[in-house]
Amino acid sequence: MLKMLRKNTKLIIWAVIISFALWGGYSVGSGLKKGSRFAGEVFGKGVPHKEFDFFYRASQIFSFTDKTIEDPEILRQIAWQHLIYSREAKARKIEVSDEEVRQRMTELLKAHGLENPTQEAYENWLRRTIRETPRDFEEKIREFIRIQKLIQPLLNQSPEPPSPEELQKQFLWDRGALAFRAVRFPTREEADAFYARVKDPKNWDVETVNFTGKLETSNLAILRTFLVHWRLSEQDILRLYEAGSNHISEPLAAKNEFVVFFITDKKEADPKEFETWKAKYLEALGRKNFAKWAMELRLRANLKDYLPGPADKKK
């Protein structure tokens, strides 16, 4: 496969991966009675086998990972994704000129040591490297440029930034950290009884040395961990953070349990890291916005895949 093609499409590598990861379930084999004529349907219109095969082959050539994708089922889903992107781009009247195709081809050939090749040298290179005719290969390049034109503005679009207060809060979740020991209890009564015995930190080791319940220990963990993993309220997390090290909390509601935390260490969020963190955070918001767009496009396309699945092929 062409490594240079991967380099030239880095702008949409993560976009393709996100969109593909969100692809989820679609209708497979739901219209096998139409299978002899169409590979499937998108946007309510049939997809001829020739069109699907075009994008399947293109997905083999234009790999978006460092390794060639060989799994036919993954290639199949990526082919559908590219086909939907292409149809959406055409519906938006996105055009690709012959000059744009020639420019991309010139870049590719130059990267492979073929600067100003003769037509014969060009055709031999295609036949030897990709096993494609010039016309077929150039049309595949045209469609991938069209797809890039569709999604690149979405990738470059800056999301509406959160308020300064919201940014500071998110920064704290990602850069503030606590090390702790924690004991879980199924009822508040049990947690209260334990807390009464250990609220003096000197008693913690005595009470937990032979403890047979749910006892956990963690090195420095970012505060977002307490939101996602422990499901603590923001107020409780801030209280833990403000209390700092050598602090034992009163029982806190976490999921369907009650937890007593012994905070053993604390790492402050460093203000010097804020601008670097902010740039990455806004970039992640942009990816999230693209993922939302890709999901909405998938739903609108209402893909119906009439091709036989793996189970059908084994019959």
Short account of what is shown:
The protein has 315 residues and is an alpha+beta fold. The protein contains 14 helices and nine strands. It has two domains: 3-158 and 289-314, Triger factor/SurA peptide-binding fold (Orthogonal Bundle); 177-267, Chitinase A, domain 3 (Roll).
The CATH architecture assignment of the largest domain turns out to be Orthogonal Bundle
Shape: elongated
CATH class of the largest domain reads Mainly Alpha
Kindly report the CATH topology of the largest domain.
Triger factor/SurA peptide-binding fold
Number of strands: 9
Helix content: 40-55%
Structural class assignment = alpha+beta
Provide the domain count.
Answer: 2
Low-confidence stretches: 1-35
Number of helices: 14
Order of helices and strands: HHEEEHHHHHHEHHEHHEEEHEH
Portion in beta strands: 5-15%
| Mean pLDDT over all positions | 83
Terminal Cα separation, in Å?
A: 32 Å
Question: How would a textbook summarize the main sheet?
Answer: 5 strands, antiparallel
Q: What is the CA-atom radius of gyration, in angstroms?
A: 28 Å
Q: What do these coordinates show?
A:
This protein has 315 residues and is α+β, with helices and mostly antiparallel strands. The protein has 2 domains: 3-158 and 289-314, Triger factor/SurA peptide-binding fold; 177-267, Chitinase A, domain 3 (Roll), CATH 3.10.50. Helix content is 55%, strand content 15%. The protein has 14 helices and 9 strands.
